[in-house]
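Why does this matter for the project? Reviewers at the last site visit asked to see concrete outputs rather than summary tables. In response, this paragraph embeds two records directly. Each consists of the residue sequence and, immediately after it, the corresponding structure tokens. Nothing has been edited or filtered.
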Amino acid sequence: MKKLFIILNILFLSLTYAQETDKLLKVTYVRRALFMPEGDFDTFLYVDGTRSQFVFQQKETTIKDDQGFGLKLNFLKYINDYDSKNQIVEENRELKDGTILYATWKNDIVWEITEEESQMEGYKVRKAMTDSFDFSKEDPNYNGKATAWFTTDIPVQAGPGRYFGLPGLIVDLSFDTTRKGYTLKKVEYIPKDKYHFVPLDKENLVEKEDVVYYFHKNPKKIKEIQKAAKKKKK
């Protein structure tokens, strides 16, 4: 009986999602800043079938809390595509001078899906964990474990940042050692003509580590690409 219930539930969710195939799934996440909510801002995820695109843009600014404590947020802009069928990630990272880097890689995130369940933002969610990679393990800023709460109510293998591959939409993403993370703000279906997937610029091919860690891994190579791009514009 329990097995039959699970099968029927999956069929119901698949049918519900299929009814929206003439539209795009748009998910808005609040990106939590490092220390203070004054630095929080919205990021956006778009999903069409097995393809998703995440858009992240953090403007360079300085924020202050009520006590006058200041925090500088650096410019950070990137767009990534995820093909969940083939588990391929593609990403453009735009540097401050306008240079655009391109990288592609096989999604190699290994999730540990637990039995722990909860309710978040109106959805039944399950907890999963993996190693974070916003910084390498050797970096003093390494964030430790990443904890994701996902819902199979929305059966897409997508999420914010560079985290993919769970059997449902990521509702919340947090880390062991920092306030940074993502909180679901809004889920909606929009007409496909309201958002067109941004075509990625594949000219300046670099490694995954170069778009994730930027200058931390290969600063000489990045500077050479910037220099060449600047020369080309003249």
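We now turn to the second protein, recorded in exactly the same manner.
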Amino acid sequence: MLVRYRVFWRPMDRGLIADREILVVEDEMMLRKRVAAFLEKAGAQVVAVDTLAKARAALKEWAFDFALVDIQLPDGEGLDLLQERAFPETTSVVVMTSEGGVQRAVEAMQLGAADFLAKPFDHEELPIIFRRCLRQEQTVRLLEHRQEMTKPETDGLF
């Protein structure tokens, strides 16, 4: 007897998210729960909160690999976290919103967001977005390394 299983994750996608710590800051309860469940099913450790205050508290306790942050929250804007530099450099921040368009996306990127996601979105986009964030981070590290390698040595010359 032939048994078929539906495959939701390619191995690379699951490996990308598995064991990652991800912060989800979203005030819409159903979206927050669906995103968290999707990421947890992929093996991520997820902290899902609905306000800026709870996000700030979570950031004091944990170091996250990724953060999905809604712009419009009950107690302010998710961009406030970027302006405050609340995220460590090792956290790739993806800003989500259903309003604002290109101008808000540019503002988020200028404040340090790694990417921008327009709502509504398909949850299957998340591994693609996270992969793009990791590639961007690797590119930055590579450029920094190359710059360091091309610096002239001045040990003891002056």
